[in-house]
Amino acid sequence: MTTSQDPVAFLCWLKTQIPLLNHMGLGDLKFDGHKLMLPAVLAPNINDKGTGFGGSLATLATISGWCLTTLLLKDQMLDCDVMIRDCEIRYLAPVTGDFHAEVVVPSSNDVEGFVSRLRDKGRARLTLEVVVIQNGNKALVMQGNYVAIERKVQG
């Protein structure tokens, strides 16, 4: 079974690795192999104005891109460290209710190039666009560059 077929187990594991995620009111991770969605409730992510805290929105976007990158690599049987290299975030509208992040798998050419570079050089970069949505409206758009580095086998 690929990790894209068991996103609930993946999210449970991730919450053990990044304790902050246990406090964000995350819902079930959904990944169908083409699009990843990760919902969150407003209450634990609220700011002093009664809207979604920008840091929470940025965290949800960042972790969603990380999840997509990691799941793509796991489906290729690649054991890698994944990290965000840099990103640009645009806040478009205040969040006044529950929200979710969406990220779509890039074109097959982009993914194939990413995997090929990783296999050849031991590291590669993947650019993703992640959106945070509330009631069908974009509240945040993040363009992020994620880097994967193959883990060295000990021995």
From TrEMBL:
The record ties this protein, via Pfam families, to:
YiiD_C (PF09500)
| Domain Thioesterase putative span(s) in chain numbering | 14-149
The residues forming a coiled coil are none
Which top-level group of life is the source organism from? Answer: Bacteria
The name under which this protein is listed is: Thioesterase domain-containing protein, putative
What organism is listed for this UniProt entry? Neptunomonas antarctica
